[in-house]
């Protein structure tokens, strides 16, 4: 091999070394950004992702900036940088990064661009700006965006109120089997929003949502069994479902259990346990809970307080 050939081989080896090193560094930053900022709603996320409340924007920001710098065409990383920026309080720059990815059809960025127009970019929610982005993501099949579309139509936010369209969007979202969407669709069937009332269909949707652990759906099944509305009256099953819901902090279920123990419905009367459930319900609802409760419950609480629990069972 001549001198020129050897020199060329050395240059090529050095080039390949630096290229390999740069690729390895880019991959490392991407993996770190994924671990710190991947979203549970993003179809591209491997694993469960990082919930919003667990995301540390400041700690994640520089890593994701480096990841984007080394992988400038990655829509996923642009989106994750947007998440980090938004959590760090920089919604304006976050919106810019979301929009870059969203304009190229990145579904998670489209959803977050809609969300940031409602929560954070302006002094008050801008539903008109949010709607088209939710629509784009929903049309691509993102269930959470379909749910948002249902809410916008149900409550007339940025659009004319339309229960039928709300129900259609909830139905699309419910096909994914998410309990929140099943509950909302069940609610529309129960009360006849955008369709004819159908208690049987509502019960079916509530039950599916309840079995998946949705607290509101569990509370609905509890009351259906307790009142004999939509299901045969069964105090034991009512209590079972309300206990599941109450343990998740549902105040309506907690009040139900308080009443059950106070009146001895399905369980032995126990005023102490009743009071404990009433306390939990009040805590779940906030400091104004006593004003929202019935006169009977308020009276019962007052009597127990005034008498110092002297009649309570251990």
Summarize the structure.
With 314 residues, the chain is mainly alpha-helical.
Polypeptide structure, described:
With 314 residues, the protein is mainly α. Helices cover 70% and strands 0% of the residues. The chain is built from 16 helices and no strands. α3 (75-87) runs parallel beside α5 (107-118). It is elongated. The termini are far apart.
Instruction: Tell me what the CATH architecture of the largest domain is.
Output: Alpha Horseshoe
Radius of gyration: 27 Å
Q: If you average the pLDDT, what whole number results?
A: 86
Please tally the β strands and state the result: 0
User: What composes the largest sheet?
Assistant: none
Shape: elongated
Proportion of strand residues? under 5%
Number of helices: 16
The CATH topology assignment of the largest domain is Serine Threonine Protein Phosphatase 5, Tetratricopeptide repeat
The CATH C-level class name of the largest domain:
Mainly Alpha
Termini Cα gap: 96 Å
**Low-confidence runs (pLDDT<50, min 5 residues)?**
14-23, 287-293, 306-314
Helix content bin: over 70%
Total tally of structural domains: 3
Element-level helix/strand string: HHHHHHHHHHHHHHHH
Topology (elements, then pairings):
Elements: H1 3-37, H2 57-70, H3 75-87, H4 91-102, H5 107-118, H6 127-139, H7 143-155, H8 163-174, H9 179-191, H10 199-211, H11 215-227, H12 235-247, H13 251-263, H14 271-285, H15 289-292, H16 295-306
Helix pairs in contact: 1-2, 1-3, 2-3, 3-4, 3-5, 4-5, 5-6, 6-7, 7-8, 8-9, 9-10, 10-11, 11-12, 12-13, 13-14
